[in-house]
Amino acid sequence: MENQLLEIIKLSKSYLGHQVFSELDLQFSQQKYCIVGENGCGKTTLLLLAAGLEPACSGEILIDKKPVTDKAVRFDIGISSDRIVLPEFLTSKQLLDFHCQQFCCPFPEELIKALHFAKQLTKPIKGLSLGSLKKISLLLALCHQPKYLLLDEPTTGLDKLSREWLLAYLQRYNGCLIVTSHEACFIDNSHYRQINLLQLGDND
């Protein structure tokens, strides 16, 4: 892939008077990152902002010099987070079919096989276990082969085989990968540059 750059410029975000970020500056290029910090410090919020799924109070988020809100940019982003609410009335297959239509990508047969998800395709989203919800969230993030992959605690809730497959897949991934995690497989992995939000500026 060509050189890539995700830029966070003077980003501020608050909820109900609680300041999450204040004029945060960060740059992510074509490598792997692990964002760490105590619960509540804004790790998940940062991913949602970077994906254009949450509005910032002020500041800019640019992907390849374009605002993350640009419709064309959305095709370059894949995100998995438990904070993203999935439509419970759809089956897993219906949701994947819709996603593939929106992103003009083939149905992810190989990824489904790798994550042992085939038996869950006919089940409605509201009937999935926490582990299966994690898997379909990952499938939605991965299936259109994005240049920027944002994964919130990606291994939490996965079975052993799916976890091993995912870690190997991420090791091969050659775009810009940003994960949040408390797990040693990321925190102690020299391939991941660690970013501690609590040590950046005025973050709370």
UniProtKB/TrEMBL annotation:
<keyword id="KW-0067">ATP-binding</keyword>
<keyword id="KW-0547">Nucleotide-binding</keyword>
<dbReference type="InterPro" id="IPR027417">
    <property type="entry name" value="P-loop_NTPase"/>
</dbReference>
<dbReference type="InterPro" id="IPR051782">
    <property type="entry name" value="ABC_Transporter_VariousFunc"/>
</dbReference>
<dbReference type="Pfam" id="PF00005">
    <property type="entry name" value="ABC_tran"/>
</dbReference>
<protein>
    <submittedName>
        <fullName>ATP-binding cassette domain-containing protein</fullName>
    </submittedName>
</protein>
<dbReference type="InterPro" id="IPR003439">
    <property type="entry name" value="ABC_transporter-like_ATP-bd"/>
</dbReference>
<keyword id="KW-0813">Transport</keyword>
<dbReference type="GO" id="GO:0005524">
    <property type="term" value="F:ATP binding"/>
</dbReference>
<feature type="domain" description="ABC transporter">
    <location>
        <begin position="6"/>
        <end position="198"/>
    </location>
</feature>
<dbReference type="InterPro" id="IPR003593">
    <property type="entry name" value="AAA+_ATPase"/>
</dbReference>
<dbReference type="GO" id="GO:0016887">
    <property type="term" value="F:ATP hydrolysis activity"/>
</dbReference>
